[in-house]
Amino acid sequence: MTPPVSGTRSAGSSAGEPPTGRCVLAVDVGATTMKGAVFGEDGGVRHSVVVPSRADGDPVGALRELCRRLHAEAVAGGAAPAGIGVVTPGIVDEAAGLVRYASNIRFRDVPLRALVHDDLGLPVVIGHDARAAGVAEAVAGAGRGLANFLLLPLGTGIAATVVLDGQPVPGTAWSAGEVGHMPVYPGGEPCTCGQRGCLEVYASAGGLARRYARLGGDPGLDSRAIAAAAATDPLAGEVWDTATQALGIALATLTLTLDPARIVLGGGLAEAGAQLFDPVRDALRAALAWRTAPEVVPSAFGAQAARVGAAILARRAAGLAVPDGWAAPVPASVGS
């Protein structure tokens, strides 16, 4: 499933035939943008919109405004919103509907579920973005049908979601999966968290770009540009090789600790395809001397996984079933 461009209806809904029936609203809050969507009864995206997060101004107000806008768009299109799911990064207490701390979006002890419910009067579920992405992969994506798997979205930072029997593991303090701060090179380069040698320093999109610039490369290049230049720019090649090696080492540690049936990689870096997956798989296999490595595959939903997960959580909060294959994506393919 490929969502339509912002503000348009998906294929299958013409301007003269607005969607009808129950729908759910989904919002994925990021550091720079918030992505909202109206999901129809069949799992198709009926309307989508992307707005700035306004993290330097009033991020909570911007989020509430987006939720109200989505609700109005759904009603104007002839649909009846049944519930809404909102997912954010940070430490998210899903049981209390509270975002305890999210530094990138300047949330601290925000009673998000109560605020959105006051605005819309709908069932509201608040979730963590990476755990919601795990729900999407479990229900209709790369983890469907598995008893357990591990999801790592590789973006500005790196988090992990452990999924057991279709449910993500939140941890005691709602902060399980902070593998970005797993030391992969003890005594290595400093991380913003205060430790040294963290995985995020070497293998996150943000860390990769910062490391390239710190070693003398063009500070204007992002991770995609560095990946594209890796074959011709020796420094870009070195930084990329270190990133894939670091990720393979981290996946070996996680494999030995958790024994996942499958490892799913998502986020922007995973869009590099075989350029990322081939050396990461090689590094993982090389680090496991006595056991077979689990398969490493791309996310089925890519950058949309958290938003799809928010929609699934919204259906559950509204008491609606989530049929097998609901919101099924176009299958991703990277050779194994």
TrEMBL record:
Coiled coil regions in record: none
PANTHER family: BIFUNCTIONAL UDP-N-ACETYLGLUCOSAMINE 2-EPIMERASE_N-ACETYLMANNOSAMINE KINASE, ROK (REPRESSOR, ORF, KINASE) FAMILY
Origin species: Plantactinospora endophytica
GO molecular function, one term: kinase activity
Keyword Protein transport included in the entry's annotation: no
Family, per entry: Belongs to the ROK (NagC/XylR) family.
Keyword entries, A-Z: Kinase, Transferase
Gene3D superfamilies assigned: 3.30.420.40
InterPro entries: ATPase_NBD, ROK
Keyword Transferase: yes
Name of the protein: Sugar kinase
